[in-house]
Amino acid sequence: MNERRWFRRLVPVHADEEGRPIEDRLVVAAKAGDAASFEALVRRHMDRMYGVARLMLRDPDLAEDAVQQAFVRAWRDIGSLREPSRFESWLHTLVVRACYDEARRNRRWQADVRVLAPVAELTGHDQAPDDRDVIERGFRMLSPEHRMVLVLHFYLDLSAGEIGQRLGVPAGTARSRLHYALAALRAAIEADERGTQRRAGGTA
Amino acid sequence: MNEPERYDDPALARRVRAWVKDAAPTTAPERLVYAVMDEVERERPRPRGMLGPIRLGTLMQYVALTVVIAIGVAAGTLATRQNPSGASPVPSGPTASPTGQRPSPVPAPPSLATIGRYDISRDPGPSAIGINGSSLWVGTPDGSIVELDAATGGQVASVSVGFEPTTIAPAGGLLWVGSSGKDLTWVDPVSREVGTISGAGGIYVLPWSGSLLVSRREEFLEVDPSTRRIVGSFPIPGHVASEPGLVVGDELWAGAGARIVRVALPSGTVLGTMPVTASALVAAGDGILAIDAGVLLRVSTSSGPLDAPITILDGLPQPYGVAIAGDRLWVTGPAEGRGGEVVEVDLTAGVVASLTPVGRGTRAIAVVDRSVWVAVDTGALLRLSAGT
Q: Looking at the whole model, is its pTM more than 0.80?
């Protein structure tokens, strides 16, 4: 257990120009082995990283495993992070890798293609339930790479350049992957809709 | 988004964005943080006394280390002979003072006396405390809210809501119960009637000018408590439901990742952002305070927001609960992994007025008159004397 970082009354100081001095300080302390600072970093980023994993893997258990692996990896390797200000983007990369690993280890999701999320989880006020089901089904049919690029772009609001950094590919490749992911989703949705129409026609 | 993307099918992009917003979880399970930190604790270097049986290889390492130390001592003795003053040619480490002594420790602040203990629920303890007149309403992990008389601590009633509350806020004669679920629940404190507003759920519920603002991903929903309907939404880019929000006058301040966003109400215009990762936001008498990684910051004064935050105090616990009473700020939560505590900050002097350990973990706090009520993870509600 660490010794208490005792209360210090601070003279008024301004945040530095980068605007994230506290996160940088936490990263520096975590690099020095301070688990409490690392826990503060975990708490800061956990919700978003869990959101990435849940959306990408579409399974709460797999998502928890992936996020746990990513954060533990971050603790092990934080000494190799040279610039504290790059902690968040580095963490994104670790979560992406952990999600890919989980996806590869668990091929269940290929069998999950036709499983719908419970309607109770999907209720909202700004999108019709049918449309959410359609997107959900289409998303489940995408490859892990296509899912991830959509999640990074639409959930974390990352640009193609930023996605490229996280995935270790050039910005142009990331942009192309985003384009093909949307195209694949559109194709999956259209295929699903044709199937629905056929089923509806068959039962009429 | 940093750089606009052009989509072949903008309508599909809009549909995907809306689906992502709806399908993403609001918060991660707390157990996930514990699981990560358990793993981290296991991997931390152990003290020497905890090493296992000494193997031959380890023994050889000790022998080699002893030889190295002996050589070092001999070299040091030689250097001392060459430098009779005995002054070390190497500067002192960062923790040593110029005199070579560590700075004297700051005396610990006093603790508050526990004047009552009320068993409310099972582990991990009550999750939210709301104040309604002379009553305390306490949320429990088994899905109910319990009414206590704030004067005596006696239990008055218990109403089942079916989920673990995250906020209990009075407005429009009703109690509004926040959660991580999809629906917003209200409870009539007199008739004990319970109802829900479908699709309006959120972690935090903030009363504002006769309405309620409900914290959700990327937005605060506006709910009319009289008609019990959703009447609007204020978009907050980057906000997730578990990040704090605060209404002061006709302004909403909300955490959004590494920024605090300031929004004018009711127009919804974003007035500005501030580079602070707020884990708590509190309105103090002369401005707004935020807590970021144990540091208490002033982010606005009575004359308006600051260009950059001013740091006041360092070393606060993770703020699982905050309360304000006069010039005193009360913060409760785990402090650097050492268990729960209640810290009282004298905002006028900018110092810690009291520090009270309250067991392994705490989850919520409220201050009524001269009593501080703290929910602890054994399932109890502690009543501390706030003194003078």
A: no
